[in-house]
Amino acid sequence: MTAATITARRSKSHAASRALIPDRFVDFPSQRLWAVAIFGLLQSLKVVDLIQLYWTSHPENYGGSLFKWWCLDLLYLFTLWIVKIPWLQFSNTKTLVLALLVLLVNPILFALPSAVLSGTILQLLTGGVMGQQLAVSRGTTVRVRFYISVRSHLFFMSSYFARPRSTAKLNPDDQYYCIPSNEVGKREVMLPIILNNTIPRHVTLSRFDFDTKARTNVDYSQRDLRRATEVSQGQQGLEVYYIKVKKPGAYRLDSVSSKDQLDVRLQTSEAMVFTCPEATFTPISNDEYCQGMEQPLTMIVSGVPPLKVEYTRKVGTSATRHQIDNIQPDNYISPLRKQDHSSYSTETNIAMSSEDDMDWAASHHITLMFNLTLSSPTDYRYQIDKVTDGTGNIIEYQEPVETKLAVHPPPSVKFECDIQRPAKLLIGSKTANLPLRLEGQAPWKIEYEYMHPDSLELTQKTVTLDSQVSAIPVALSGDYKILSVQDRHCRGDVMYPSVCRVVQPPMPEVILSATPIPSQCTDENEIGMKFVLEFQGTPPFNLGYTVSKQEGRRKTVVSSKFEKIDQSRYVFEYRPSTSGTYIYDFARLDDANYKERETGIKAIKQVVHPQPSAKFSDRLTRQGLIRTCIGEGVDLDVELGGTGPYTLNWNVFNAGERHSFEEVANEARHTITIPPLDIGGKYVVSLAKIQDANGCSKELDVADVTIEVRQDRPTASFYTSNGEDSHMTIIEGREARLPLRLTGERPWRVLFRNADKNPDKVYHAQLNDANDILVVREPGRYELVNIQDAYCPGDVSAAAINVAYLDKPTLMVDETQVTYKKHGAFERRSVCEGTDDAININLSGKTHFQPKLVNIRPFIVSYDIAHSAHGRRDSHVQSSETIHAGLGRTRIGLNTHKSGVWRYTFNRLSDEVYTQSAVPKAADNYPISIEQTVLPRASAKFVTKGNVQRVMCVGESLDSNEAGGALPMEFSGRPPFSASIRVRHQGDPHGRMYHVQDILSTKYDLSLPHELQAPGDYEVEIQSVSDDAGCQSVRLGPEAMVKITALDIATIIPIDPSMEHCVGDQLEFTLSGVGPFTVRAIRNDATKQNIQCPHYQFNGKHEKIQSPFSRLSTIADKAGNFTIVSVGDQRNKCRSYPRDLTKIIYELPSTRVSAGKDTLENIREGDSGQAVVDLIGTPPFDFEWRRYELVWDNKHKRHSKGKVLESHMVHGIESHRYYISTSQAGTIEVVSVKDRHCQYPRSQ
């Protein structure tokens, strides 16, 4: 590659490399051509848009077009900056400059015409663009547009619109309406009227009554009509109104009067309002029926035939819907019959031939009959859902219209007895009950017959029963048959078994055979009796008998039994346990049918001598093993049998040794006593032999009793060190757990007492563990009284445990710093606001038995801080504080930042032991609180109204009355007061100090002998203040300083020297001096001239205006004479008085078109309209009027001005009224007017 080639490539344009579209796709000249073409196209479209705006004269569209072309031009510049076409590449700065240029040029093209038409240029020339100006008539600011805008002088316009004929049509959709019969005259129906190109003022409707065939007229004013949303049907001017009617009939439009007094053509139509259809059931006298019955049901349907009824039939839980169509009277003729009966159309109206043929439209009443077969035992419900008349009016019932029939099932009856299971009539009973099973509803009426078993005679009877489970009482045996049954509602069925037999069972009897049982010792003695019983009757049998023992004349019942026997033969024996004479009495016999019958058996007497016997009591044999303690004896109960007295032999076995004992027992229950057992171990007690009083002896073979003797006694003691008394401390409210050591066998019963509190009261505890504890909650000396284990009493230790409470933490206020008042309240000495202060409190917590724990730490103290203002009793809690103190003394800082009464109430005190908060209390048991009065700082301020700065003139002093009087001051604190005052000029770094003392009141007027020698700002500042309590304040804030400005004399010069002006002109003046300035003038009004300090006059009335600048600009808002009297500062001082400074202001001319109203007048083709122009001002007049195109604005639904169709200039009018005639549609508007002195708008 040659060097020349390399150099050529390096010299390639850097701009081409930055292009977004490389030249290999589109060459750069073509890209530049496209860019220029697009720019030219955009500007051409802009020119076309601008021409259209100029010709149409729509000022409201200028802003939208301006914004659109701003966006398009900026988008073009931004796109050009992105694509970076060579030769059209601009830097960021150049692009920004072009964008700003577009932002300036486009307003000139688009906003300038709008500004010219809307008067903005005029406002700019007159200064009104600022929005508000000072008005010379009253010295206050006013809106300039109220005085120079077009609408304020060129009033209203007159528009003429050629429109077609106005029409009105009632019920345009040919709908039918209805009113319920019970709401005629109450409920309103809205009938629509569609109006074309007119606004109604009065409407007259005629109503034809279907019943009376009379026609009446009803008048409606505009307020009776309800306007609906404008109808959009591709036409303009269509509107819908609604008229309220309350009665049925045929309605027609008789007349319609419009607001513009134009003729309204009535289109032939009617609105038919019928009586709404309805249906109901005829009430049924009886609503209770039996299954299978038939019942007629009547439905009455009313309305305009043909009618249709839809109803629901509910049988139990099953529901079915039904419909009846074409309900109408016979020979009924109606135009509705010509329509399709399959659907009732509401869009096809009916042509009426004459009013005599309107009988069909009256409401008809038609009766429908239903024959109901009630085949199911349930509720039948018939409910009307919907009724439709011949015109398509539909009534759907929200509240059901229904009738109900309750159908009951037939009752049934049957016997619970039959021939195989007969009812029993017992001997001696008057009646027997025949059980029945009934179905149905009470009461039941039953008819039955009776057949005698011997004569076969039949007898019929009737009985009434109230219960479902009942019985028929009968007095004779035989067969009973049910014939019929009837419950509360219906007759029923007789079920099987329907026949019941009544029988009479025989009485029970018993035969007794008794045989004595001989003794084994001697044949002469008897030991009991054997009985054999034979029964007759119906088992089971119950035999009641008693066994009595006779001792002389006394007779004692030994045994009384009631044996249940299921068989006809029964054998049993009875053997008494003691000797004596026994009587066996069999008194009562029952069987299945008869109760408490006598047996007829005589009492049997027997002398019995039973064989001797002995055994331990059942309690001992069940217990098995008897435990006892060493050294104690044991008593054993023995039950003896035979004839006493007895001789009883018994043995005691222990460790291979045998000890025999013999003793005499006189009673059948005897207790043998085992002597004290001194050796531990097991002992066996055995009964060996017994002999009774008859000498009959018997070797005994009965169960033994085993006795186990304990080797030791149980003990109980408190678990203490060295067996001595111990001490225990607890927190108040908690429990103390006293440790025990127990010996013996569980369970233990321990008795103990509190010797300090109540030594006579003994407590007991049931324990199961040898190392168990006693739980107590009260302090005192606890001692053990006694112990008992499972078997033996024991011994207790004399050592005791002393239980004491830990002392609660206490809080005490250092009494050297406070004074006690009452009810727990302490008072701290008063201090001044802002003075640091604190108070000491002492905290302690001691125990009785642990001297080392003198202070239990840390302590937690909480208190509420409340504040009340001076002189007020109510206080408000400001905050709550909590202190965690680690020592027995702590310090609490007191609030002194705000004056008033501060109260510190302690509401919580706890330590690491007593964690539950308690309220610390004083000696009188009231909560502790501390009160302190904080005296307010003495303060002072200047009392000024409005601004704190005063304006004075040079040479005045601070004690001069002309300077506004003394400076009022206000003090707070306790008088007398002392204050230090400094007066300083802005150029003096130190100033001069004044000291004022013995100020006895809180209000004071400050007068200082200080003269203002130089212009500028002065500061009068309170440096310090103190009161009688010594409370001093410095740095009192901005209210303690007053600024005074010393000014030179002010002057005023007019900028425009001419004397004559028009309303809306700017009146400007140059002010010199120190502002703000106060200018006074006089208005030439003879009724109000007695004002002492005039500033300026307008029509003889004195006014004042202020200007904070050296240039005063006002607007001539009213015609009259404006004279400047004086100028000064804002407090009317330092004034000058100019001479012959007067301006004459003339009113702007104005016009009113069509008597001051925007009118829209309709003219027919060939007619003409006349616009009246009223001219206000001083003749002669010149004015220009224009006719604009009348354009309908679909967006805002109104007419607006379009482009200018014609323009005319009228000169030299000497009168105040001018007439403009036109026969073409458009809007006539006056755009300018001129009189002898002024013109509007101003010439541009």
From TrEMBL:
<dbReference type="InterPro" id="IPR056540">
    <property type="entry name" value="TMD_POM152"/>
</dbReference>
<keyword id="KW-0472">Membrane</keyword>
<feature type="transmembrane region" description="Helical">
    <location>
        <begin position="33"/>
        <end position="55"/>
    </location>
</feature>
<keyword id="KW-0812">Transmembrane</keyword>
<dbReference type="InterPro" id="IPR037701">
    <property type="entry name" value="Pom152"/>
</dbReference>
<feature type="transmembrane region" description="Helical">
    <location>
        <begin position="95"/>
        <end position="116"/>
    </location>
</feature>
<dbReference type="Pfam" id="PF24527">
    <property type="entry name" value="Ig-like_Pom152_9"/>
</dbReference>
<dbReference type="Pfam" id="PF23664">
    <property type="entry name" value="Ig_Pom152"/>
</dbReference>
<dbReference type="GO" id="GO:0006606">
    <property type="term" value="P:protein import into nucleus"/>
</dbReference>
<dbReference type="InterPro" id="IPR056541">
    <property type="entry name" value="Ig-like_POM152"/>
</dbReference>
<dbReference type="Pfam" id="PF24312">
    <property type="entry name" value="Ig-like_POM152"/>
</dbReference>
<feature type="transmembrane region" description="Helical">
    <location>
        <begin position="67"/>
        <end position="83"/>
    </location>
</feature>
<keyword id="KW-1133">Transmembrane helix</keyword>
<feature type="domain" description="Nucleoporin POM152 Ig-like">
    <location>
        <begin position="411"/>
        <end position="500"/>
    </location>
</feature>
<feature type="domain" description="Nucleoporin POM152 first Ig-like">
    <location>
        <begin position="167"/>
        <end position="273"/>
    </location>
</feature>
<dbReference type="InterPro" id="IPR056542">
    <property type="entry name" value="Ig-like_POM152_1st"/>
</dbReference>
<dbReference type="InterPro" id="IPR056543">
    <property type="entry name" value="Ig-like_POM152_9th"/>
</dbReference>
<dbReference type="Pfam" id="PF24519">
    <property type="entry name" value="Ig-like_Pom152_1"/>
</dbReference>
<feature type="domain" description="Nucleoporin POM152 Ig-like">
    <location>
        <begin position="713"/>
        <end position="799"/>
    </location>
</feature>
<dbReference type="Pfam" id="PF24097">
    <property type="entry name" value="TMD_POM152"/>
</dbReference>
<dbReference type="GO" id="GO:0070762">
    <property type="term" value="C:nuclear pore transmembrane ring"/>
</dbReference>
<feature type="domain" description="Nucleoporin POM152 immunoglobulin-like">
    <location>
        <begin position="504"/>
        <end position="614"/>
    </location>
</feature>
<dbReference type="GO" id="GO:0006999">
    <property type="term" value="P:nuclear pore organization"/>
</dbReference>
<feature type="domain" description="Nucleoporin POM152 N-terminal transmembrane">
    <location>
        <begin position="27"/>
        <end position="111"/>
    </location>
</feature>
<dbReference type="InterPro" id="IPR056544">
    <property type="entry name" value="Ig_POM152"/>
</dbReference>
<protein>
    <recommendedName>
        <fullName>Nucleoporin Pom152</fullName>
    </recommendedName>
</protein>
<feature type="domain" description="Nucleoporin POM152 ninth Ig-like">
    <location>
        <begin position="1050"/>
        <end position="1144"/>
    </location>
</feature>
<dbReference type="GO" id="GO:0017056">
    <property type="term" value="F:structural constituent of nuclear pore"/>
</dbReference>
